[in-house]
TrEMBL record:
Keywords: DNA-binding. InterPro entries: PUR-bd_fam (IPR006628). Residues 261-295 are annotated as: Disordered. It comes from Schistosoma mekongi (Parasitic worm). Residues 261-277 have a biased composition (Polar residues). It holds the Pfam family PurA. It comes from the Eukaryota. Signal peptide: none annotated. This is Transcriptional activator protein Pur-alpha. One of its GO terms (molecular function) is DNA-binding transcription factor activity, RNA polymerase II-specific. One of its GO terms (cellular component) is nucleus.
């Protein structure tokens, strides 16, 4: 082969990587969590875990339920939310103790109490709600044919997770949460919230949606967060505290105008009581109008 006619293909060019002695640094996962403490509870055929973990956002608590068939359900909450849930759980435990004392006075066993026919299954005895901007927790003390139990629910954006704790494990769960908080909760954020003295959250339910009004504050000041939650969607707006007076005036004005429109519409549709009703003559009763033309 003539070397003047043959041209070898060019060698591929690869970037030169500098040599670094030692092992390469491992890539850290964003969702990496560090387990700080854990408590396991065995209640009937279920296992519950109360874990305190840490990630890049801070320290948080995880409550998990593992059923007999291996299915898992996990609820995440900040330590501040865990403090409120602990207090609500203590109240429900007191309510349950009152029911137990009543059953003892009537010489009945709490576990053998059946749901009366007048009450539906899973009848609700008492409920608490813990509101946060991005999560909402429900603590429901219920009773069914098997006895009393606690339904702990976390509702977030397009997500709903539920845990069912039998009545025998409510006190153990309270003690586990309290033990974790005594070790890892410093209470600084709670003291800040007490100094600000924020109003209690409100909710409004109508049709197939629920509105939540949550007050909070950050480095820019206090603000109001209004969330609209539907079955498969969630939207929210935030209003600074300095604009709430103007927002209230606009809402009050629109509400008054809409109420006037409704009253005006009703008065126009209803005939006046002073006018005589239009009664056709006897000769016109059997002769209907044709194309809107009067005879």
């Amino acid at each position: 082969m003539n070397p003047l006619l043959y041209r070898p293909p060019p060698n591929p060019h690869f970037p030169m990587m500098p040599y670094l002695p030692g092992p390469l640094p491992q890539r850290r996962d964003i969702q990496e969590e560090e387990n700080l403490a854990s408590v396991a509870l065995q209640v009937q055929k279920k296992r519950f875990y109360v874990d305190v973990k840490k990630n890049r956002r801070g320290i948080f608590m995880k409550i998990a339920e593992v059923s007999s068939d291996g299915r898992k359900a996990r609820i995440l909450l900040t330590l501040q939310a865990a403090v409120e849930i602990k207090d609500k759980l203590r109240d429900l435990i007191d309510v349950l103790e009152g029911i137990k004392s009543t059953c003892k006075n009537s010489a009945q066993d709490l576990d053998e109490i059946k749901t009366p026919e007048s009450q539906p299954a899973n009848s609700l005895i008492k409920s608490h709600v813990v509101n946060y901007p991005y999560r909402r927790y429900f603590l429901d003390l219920k009773r069914n044919k098997r006895g009393h139990f606690l339904r702990l629910t976390m509702v977030s954006t397009m997500n709903r997770i539920q845990l069912a704790i039998p009545s025998q494990g409510m006190l153990d769960l309270y003690n586990a949460i309290n033990e974790m908080l005594e070790k890892w909760w410093d209470g600084l954020e709670a003291n800040d919230n007490k100094s600000v003295n924020l109003p209690e959250s409100k909710s409004l339910r109508f049709d197939n949606r629920t509105l939540y009004f949550d007050s909070s504050f950050n480095r820019f000041g206090a603000y109001l967060r209004i969330s609209e939650v539907r079955t498969a969607s969630r939207t929210a707006i935030t209003i600074p505290g300095r604009s709430l007076s103007r927002f209230r005036d606009i809402i009050n004005g629109l509400a008054e105008d809409l109420s006037n429109v409704k009253v005006t519409k009703n008065t126009e549709e209803q005939p006046s009581t002073n006018e005589a009703p239009n009664t056709p003559d006897d000769s016109e009763t059997n002769e209907p109008l044709v194309n809107g033309e009067a005879s």
